[in-house]
Amino acid sequence: MKDQKVLISGASIAGLSTAWWLNHIGYRVTVVELAAAPRIDGAAVDLNGPTVEIAKRMGLYEQLKSYRLGVDRIEYKNADDVTEGTMIINEGPESPGDEIEIEREKFVAVLTGALKNKVEFMFSNSIAGLEEIADGITVTFNHGSPQIYSLVIGCDGAHSGTRKIWFGPEAAYAHSLNAYFSISIVNKVLVPQRTMQAFSVPYKSVMLNAYNHKTDIIFMFVSETDIPYNYRDTAQQRQIITAQFEGQGWRTTELLKEIEQSESFYFDRFCQIKMPSWSKGRVVLVGDAAYCPSPAAGQGGSLAMQGAAAIADALLKHNGNHELAFTEYDRNLRPSIEEIQTIAEQNVKTNFVLKTEEEIRRRNAEAKLF
Question: Domain FAD-binding spans what residues (predicted)?
């Protein structure tokens, strides 16, 4: 493995984590990223038990822990802003145990700091073509000369360009959960900090989560039919959210104005990626590109880090034999991925977006028991 060149597509959590691990075990790593800088947009990242152990192996746990967030309570609101149910999660400001919730921006900063002067970055560029040869894979880029690498690792998200080029169209692997969401992060506190508030009407929900003088604004809705949209056209996506939530009560009018003015806006459908194999030849996928569980799992960042470590461990075990390593990576990680995808699908149906007033009232009332 020493001095073999590896290309990682995507400076995401999956891409940065994979870059750290492959550099750690001896590869010369290049990360190519379509954007002009590592991606920091999106909700906070949860690191669960297995991922905490990986962060400790990387020597980054204490640094990540210093930015730990947390939610103490969830309040379920009705249209008149009356709290109908409260779920107490923590009794105090310190989160129990080793698990971490951290702002994505802070998480990415820690990872990029750990990669400084160790990994080459190519920003504002992307893979245009791949051709496997006898002892490597030739990569052509949208900008610059072709290069030969030993391996290519796609870490470029649920809408992976690497997957499209090498494995085929997204439609072959994407499984819609018949729901859509948006998230905006505004630099003001709209609810008490360390508190999450939720409001629901049939087929639609709004959530607010405040931390570090910021608030996440999340809109979610169910649609039994696919809504066509351009995932790069944020103006169109804002219009979709406005059309769904205009006049729905509670604070929706105020919140729609907030997201209209906010530069931070991300929209997508709740979708899972399911592939029969995460690798083909010298190309392998990690994170959402391979096995996106959807945001309903709340574990996208954790699963990305687990995939990165699993790839490195397998390559180390098999002395760089990519065929054996990729097979073991798939075999070891797939059972837990499939379990989490099942949980995420159930979350959309039973927790995030409820379909009747009766279900909403029951959830709010049951929260009083905690």
Answer: 5-318
